[in-house]
Amino acid sequence: MATNHTQSNTSGTCGGAQRISDRMLVQSIADGDKDAFKALYLRNHVRVYRFVMRLVRNESTAEEIVNEVFLQAWRKADRFEGKSQVATWLLSIARFKAMTVLRQRSDMPLDQEVASAIEDPADTPATMVAKKERNEIVQSCMAKLAPHHREVINLIYYQDNKIEEVARAIGAPINTIKTRMHHARNHMAKLLANAGVDRAWVAI
What we know:
This protein is mainly α. The chain has helices spanning 22-30, 34-56, 59-75, 86-104, 125-143, 147-158, 163-170, 174-194. It folds into two domains: 1-106, Rna Polymerase Sigma Factor, Chain: A, CATH 1.10.1740.10; 110-204, Arc Repressor Mutant, subunit A (Orthogonal Bundle).
């Protein structure tokens, strides 16, 4: 299985698969279609990897979890009921596996987080340095949040999920997610202000 997470191919590359929805791909995977599985992986592996990486903070561990997520998707495609988006289903699997690893590994506590900065090739060296510095500050502030607050920020702001999808992925009521998001945003805003970062400069 490919493990290049530097860029996303959200349209798929397997023949006409770019015109097929994720749900249809899962249905085909349930029938043993390897091309559909490849297309699903290409569309979603970057999102899953980034989500897992923010939790486990270890590249090799994140790679292993991503492979396990898609292996489980292959094996259990016939059990997908379509009650949520396929991406939400994959993130739910990823979350369970990441949390299992974190509970087993004392060297990867929940109260810390690392996410690499994504550099724009068009950026000047000075801009790249400034972005990296801001990113480091943001990640430092994120690490100070409670795990459940950091999780909703990750899922909603970084993974661009809707509140309803996050509630299904986490298994919590929608109102609980809204409350967590409210507290997480307020706490993050205070942390960023104390660090001297203008909130408008970051994706939060």
